[in-house]
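Quick one from the shared queue. A colleague (R.T.) flagged Caspase-2 as missing a structural entry in our internal table.

Convert sequence to structure tokens.
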Amino acid sequence: MANCVPPGTISEVLLQNPSKRGLAIIITNDYGGAAALAGTRKDGARMQRVFDGLQIATLWKENVSGDDLRRLLREIPTLPRTYESISFVYSGHGSEGDVLCMQDGSKMHMQEIVNAFLPRRAPNVGNIPKLFFIDACRGSETFQPVVVPRTGGNVQVDRPQRSGTRDRGATDMRTVFVPPEGNTIIAYSNISRNRALEGKEGGVWMKALAKRMAESKESIENVLTGVRSDLQHMYQDPNWRGHMQLPETISHLLRPVYLHPDGAALRGNPVQQQPANVSPPGTLTQRDERHRGHYKGRLLHLQQKNIITDVTERYEKSFVCVLTFVKCSDRRRYEFRSEEFSGKQEAKESAARRAVLSLDLEARGVTNSPPRQQAPPRNAHSVSPPQPSCQQGKANATGPPPAAPAPVSPANKDPKSRLKEYCEKNRLPQPVYEVVECGDARHQVRVKVSGKSFYGELKTAKKEAEKSAAQKALAKLL
């Protein structure tokens, strides 16, 4: 195995290239010995030439160990926010589960690399698009060609979105709000569980990508679509039909990204002022009625109807709302705590939501939690021991309750429903389902739960594919 070469610093590259439009980090490993890859160095040189032509600074490092790459990634939060994009290129061995193999034999999950660039880890560059180009195996399977009628003409490349705008690192506004894990695009040379191939001139996909990036003025998403089109035409040659790859793209970009400097004409005018439809400061903007004062309103309605009384609120630390009230029918005192928020209104709405939902459940005769025996833990609520008389005749006391499904045995529940309940029970974000591109009429779905990805089986129906992914996630989480 070849010796690992410690990478230089990003700071050195920035000092030498103060006026560049962006930064590209290129990692190539050749390994040596029986596992040697002869084409990775050509991939690195090719991509470096492409980025140089696009006026993007490059840091190309060969034969990098896992520890060296982690040290390199720790510099990401220090990048200047004036860049238009940040790219990460990898050419080397990989394995199933989106794992990259380093020069020293260690392994790094792709998510670990992506995490280093996310807004919650590197807020200074949170509004800058991050692009990942990965040319590595993702398993040991290979495609078998399928003969289909030639209909519909040639594969066409989608035209760019002309309404897109660019933001040079949030220099036009003092602050901008972005999702904690957004503004990234990950481009793989093949779909999950399949091999990536290289020829005499380097990686098959990387070569096609470099050519498109150097010549095309379109957005990066259209560039990647064009690469798939190029490979599709190439596979019509009988000599290539046994070596098919189907590149996969996972995009969470917040706007079109153009790497070519002449693509500026397609970007539109930069944003000069705040859009007119932005909610005013201090209000909640999630598109859900329960996050816009809905539950505070319902609590006030209960108070006006003399169903509850003595409503008080207090705040602990940085806006944890503690809401207490007395139920008029039996004089029981209730207490509910919100999660921690950045403002009082959000905290009060959260506590009110817990209170109203608990009263709804009680009115329907459902026990939400055991009687309190000691002080409640943080973010939990408690009630005094229930009285039998309180469980009857209160179904309409709080207004029309939310629709509730009929009781279903947990073993017979839909996997998606069970996974949703698991996330709610453990106060996790709701699962996110994404369709992975496949080369036939079948679907594969990836579900993300609390930063982890779970892949389902290939199914002919998208709904069944989602259920399969949810079942895989439950098997790992429970």
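The domain at 10-266 is CATH 3.40.50.1460 (Rossmann fold).
Residues 172 and 272 are 7 Å apart (CA to CA).
Added to the table.
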